[in-house]
Amino acid sequence: QVQLVESGGGLVQAGASLTLSCGASGRTLSTYAMGWFRQAPGKEREFVAAISRSGRSTYVGDSVKGRFTISRDNAKNTVYLQSNSLKPEDTAVYYCAARMDPFSATTYYTGVHDYGFWGQGTQVTVSV
């Protein structure tokens, strides 16, 4: 099984940028489609961005479109979420997720239930 560890969160001011990383151990990430989700207090877990296992296909949610970018480096077994122009409403715990995908190198997944493996999360707090 794959173990996921997120890093890069923190406290920033509105308008700042952060790069979140998701490192994996136990298995190579090249066989997994990956996603980022976030959860604010009292709210449901929300889709942020997804990437196919090859990295050729990506998708970001409407709430972060134009500001966040997902990418991956399979050689480093790491997935990234570049977040720019952060807003207070981006404050949440950010989770990365993995889904083994042996059949497609170009499919991404946007549902919470599409993923079987989750990290512990990293807190992002954006102040006004």
What ranges have pLDDT less than 50 throughout 5 or more consecutive residues? Answer: none
Report mean pLDDT, rounded to a whole number.
Answer: 96
Report the biggest beta sheet as strand number plus sense, adding barrel if it closes. 7 strands, mixed
Q: Write down the Rg.
A: 14 Å
Strand content: over 45%
What is the count of β-strands?
11
Q: Could you say which overall geometry the principal axes of the C-alpha atoms support?
A: globular
Total helix count? 0
Amino- and carboxy-terminal Cα gap: 40 Å
What is the helix fraction of residues, given as a range? under 10%
Helix and strand string, N-terminal first?
A: EEEEEEEEEEE
Helix vs. strand class: mainly beta
A few lines on this structure:
The protein has 128 residues and is mainly β.
Report on the structure:
By secondary structure, the protein is an all-beta fold. Helices cover 0% and strands 49% of the residues. It is built from no helices and eleven strands. Strands 2, 4, 5, 6, 9, 10 and 11 form a seven-stranded mixed β-sheet that branches. It has a four-stranded antiparallel β-sheet with strand order 1-3-8-7, with no helix packed on it. A hairpin with a 6-residue loop joins strand 4 and strand 5 (46-51). The N and C termini lie far apart (40 Å).
Question: Which descriptors would you attach to this protein?
Answer:
128 residues; mainly beta; globular
Summarize the topology:
Layout: E1 3-7, E2 10-13, E3 18-25, E4 32-39, E5 46-51, E6 58-60, E7 68-73, E8 78-83, E9 92-100, E10 117-118, E11 122-127
Parallel strand pairs: 2-11
Antiparallel strand pairs: 1-3, 3-8, 4-5, 4-9, 5-6, 7-8, 9-10, 9-11
